[in-house]
Specification:
It contains two helices and two strands, in the order H-E-E-H. With 99 residues, the protein is mainly alpha-helical. The termini are far apart.
């Protein structure tokens, strides 16, 4: 399908571009869904389960064990990240939590 775009006014060209881009996105999504379905069928025929999901796996939360404690407030710090105001590096041994 071809048409002379040079004869169309700018507003019509912009409107056409928007509708064409929407159609491209819809068709690409539909084709991708079809391909994923076909892939699942082929893997089932081979006896393999899909090993890669479309979504990124969730990262496990990082748990830091407290290494230092403020004797006045009881607040703790693992030694990672920004140093709290109560922590004095010159007296680090005074703030250590006994193992």
């Amino acid at each position: 399908m071809t048409f002379a775009v040079s004869d169309l006014p700018l507003d019509a060209l912009i409107e056409s571009r928007v509708s064409i881009e929407q159609e491209i996105r819809q068709r690409a999504k539909a084709e991708l869904a079809e391909l994923e379905g076909r892939r699942a069928v082929l893997l089932a025929l081979l006896g393999d389960a899909p090993k890669v999901s479309a979504e990124k796996p969730a990262k496990a939360p990082v748990v830091s064990i407290a290494k230092y404690r403020d004797p006045d407030s009881g607040k703790t710090w693992s030694g990672k990240g920004k140093r709290p105001l109560w922590f004095d590096a010159g007296r680090a041994e005074d703030f250590l939590i006994a193992a």
